[in-house]
Amino acid sequence: MRNDVLNLSTHCLQQWREELAGAPGALHRRVLSGIARDLERAVKFVLPEGGRLMDDDRSVARVFHDLRLPFPVVALEYRSTGVVAAHETPSSKRISLIWDARQAEPALLEGTAASRGVLPGAPGLYVQSISYMDDYEAWMPVMATAYVDLAREPVIPEPGDVSELELELVRHRLRPGFERSPAFPVQFIAHDDFFLDHLGGEAAADAIFRADSGDELSAALAFAALTTCANVAMETVRAPAPLNRKREASGKTPFFDTRILQVADGGYVRRGTADAGGAGSHASPRAHLRRGHIRSLGERNVWVNAAAVNAWKATPAQPGYQLQAVRDENDEAGDLPRPRG
């Protein structure tokens, strides 16, 4: 199999199947079986390490009301770092399970979401974080599902809006500017009130849910934003049929087909405009790097690759960059831009 296929959903479902075949408590059985039903039917995607398809929350905020999934339920698989705050254990593998509320509702929340103010079919995304806990060698979902309300507006939080408890919990993966990144309208629907009491009350539980779901929420929103782009395509990697026949014969969970996002035609590049050195109102006098971002063009969104802007304007006091593709023996893709002084 290709080495970029992780098969995390298969391994997670296999472990849960074995657990459910035992004698778990009623609550544990309800939570695992409910999430497992949707994880099995979800369309699987592999993401880069850390789950960050792009590190640009402001791009997501600009297209926030356009967000939607290409399928009713998707599962994003990726390797990661960090700690599961609720269990104080490292987590090296993650799954972000996402439902487009206009097309599907989590099986676990059927008849429950509406009681928390979530209208059936309203524009929104449900996100369930599932982490592999290294110390326990076990897959475990966060005991709440996040709901992102796409009908509301993202806001830039004011200083002090992020609680000290939440900052402390996410310190291990805090990125610069976290406090001033757009805050997306998210609420958490606990799988049972038992978890609120177990985690120290509603406020403490909410902070833990946010900390342990933060990476998966970021991955979900970036994925939903990128798949609105007209120039983003999908490559499907088929699961090996002979291997699956053997797994099925031995009663094991089969491997799933996996998809990988690709930028069609190398990404959109603006030409003959101020970005290319023109003198329009958006012309940039200084040489600088512009990171990849989403741009709206009429009624469609496109992904714009990272680029050097006005690189020819470099001076000894104001250095510029030339970016070119360099193939490195350790870089299989060979298309990563490398700075040249």
Helix content: 10-25%
How many runs of DSSP E, i.e. beta strands? Answer: 16
Q: Please identify the structural class as seen in this structure.
A: alpha+beta
Poorly predicted sequence stretches spanning 5 or more consecutive residues: 172-181, 269-285, 311-341
What general outline do the C-alpha atoms trace? globular
Distance between the termini: 39 Å
Major β-sheet annotation:
10 strands, mixed
Tally the structural domains: 2
Return the average pLDDT rounded to an integer. 78
Rg on CA atoms, Å: 22 Å
Number of helices: 7
State the order of secondary-structure elements, H for helix, E for strand. Answer: HHEHEEEEEEHEHHEHEEEEEEE
Task: Explain what you see.
It is built from seven helices and 16 strands. The two termini are 39 Å apart. It has 341 residues and is an alpha+beta fold. The protein has two domains: 8-261, no CATH class; 268-340, no CATH class. Residues 172-181, 269-285 and 311-341 have low confidence and may be disordered. 33% of the residues are buried.
Task: Set down the secondary structure blueprint.
Layout: H1 8-20, H2 26-41, E1 43-46, H3 57-62, E2 73-79, E3 83-84, E4 89-100, E5 124-133, E6 138-141, E7 144-149, H4 164-169, E8 186-190, H5 193-198, H6 202-226, E9 232-237, H7 241-249, E10 258-263, E11 288-290, E12 293-297, E13 300-304, E14 307-309, E15 322-325, E16 337-340
Parallel strand pairs: 1-2, 1-10
Antiparallel strand pairs: 2-4, 3-4, 4-5, 5-6, 5-7, 7-8, 9-10, 11-14, 12-13, 15-16
